[in-house]
Design a protein that fits this description.
Keywords: Phosphoprotein. The chain is built from 12 helices and 5 strands. It has 285 residues and is α/β, with parallel strands linked by helices. It folds into 2 domains: 129 residues, 3-Layer(aba) Sandwich (Rossmann fold), CATH 3.40.50.2300; 148 residues, no CATH class.
Length: 285
């Protein structure tokens, strides 16, 4: 991972650089004491992760993240600050910040946060890569029943754990989701050219009903995430799955709906949801 560091305190920059270098978290490709100067650098350097201070004289961190985020949509942002205001922290997350680190800087916390953000970026990149690789149509025939292998048991454990964390393991569609993802895992593919209805038709005499159960359950998961985000923007489950299983902008729209700020619900892209579950299962077996 490539890091770019921004803080108007040179000592903080040096401390962060030492933590990243000594703990082998990645490489620091640049630093800056100014948000305005940093905007020019990051467009050229294209860092994976930018760590930026909230309060700076020429440009505050939130303004920087908004501007840099539009230029570097695949870069992750971590914010530093002594400010503990919940409203300020919420504004930072809404601007596009992945995590928020309270000053004074603690090396253990910095390492933990960077590790989490790095895992999220790797997951997102793996999903995008697999979506480009597995574009061929899936086989028309279902495989013959076989004795369940250890890998299948492991993947089911991973899936069940994720659904539990989303609060949907007890929903009727959770079993359908696991069935669909296990099929995709067995065929080393993702649901791209195939429609969800066609996939459900491989397991059910009523594919439309199965599809509706999957959509309803996946949507419930997003609603649960939105409530978590409203209660605690830094919640680990919220920050991880709102950027992988779901689209963060859609989760935020659902949060606005719950708050009464919008009359539109967030939208769940079921194909992306299932594809992400495939990647989680493959990476954690």
């Amino acid at each position: 991972m490539k890091f770019y560091l921004i803080d108007d305190d040179r000592n903080i920059l040096n401390i962060l650089k030492l933590i990243i270098t000594n703990r082998k978290l990645g490489t620091v490709c640049g630093t800056s004491l100014s948000g305005s100067d940093a905007l020019e650098d990051v467009q050229t350097l294209a860092p994976d992760i930018i760590i930026v201070d909230l309060l700076m004289t020429d440009m505050d961190g939130i303004s920087f993240v908004r501007k840099a985020g539009s230029l570097l949509p695949r870069t992750a942002f971590i914010m530093l600050s002594q400010v503990s205001s919940k409203d300020m922290i919420a504004s930072a997350y809404e601007a596009g910040v992945e995590y928020y680190i309270q000053k004074p800087v603690n090396s253990v916390e910095v390492e933990n946060v960077i590790s989490k953000v790095s895992r999220q970026l790797s997951m997102q990149r793996t999903i995008r890569k697999m979506q480009h690789i597995f574009m061929d149509e899936m086989p028309a025939a279902s495989p013959e029943p076989e004795r369940e292998a250890p890998a299948a048991i492991a993947s089911r454990t991973v899936l069940t754990n994720i659904l539990q964390r989303l609060g949907i393991s007890g929903d009727t569609g959770s079993r359908d989701i696991i069935t669909a993802v296990e099929y995709l895992l067995e065929h080393d593919g993702q649901i791209n050219d195939m429609t969800l209805s066609e996939l459900c038709g491989r397991f059910s005499d009523s594919p439309k009903s199965m599809e509706q159960r999957i959509r309803r359950t996946a949507n419930t998961g997003m609603v649960n995430l939105a409530h978590l985000g409203i209660e605690d923007y830094g919640n680990e489950i919220f920050t991880e799955y709102s950027n992988t299983l779901y689209n963060f902008e859609q989760v935020r729209r659902e949060m606005d709906y719950i708050r009464g700020k919008s009359d539109r619900h967030g939208n769940v892209k079921i194909k992306n949801f299932l594809n992400a579950l495939v990647v989680y299962s493959q990476n954690r077996q």
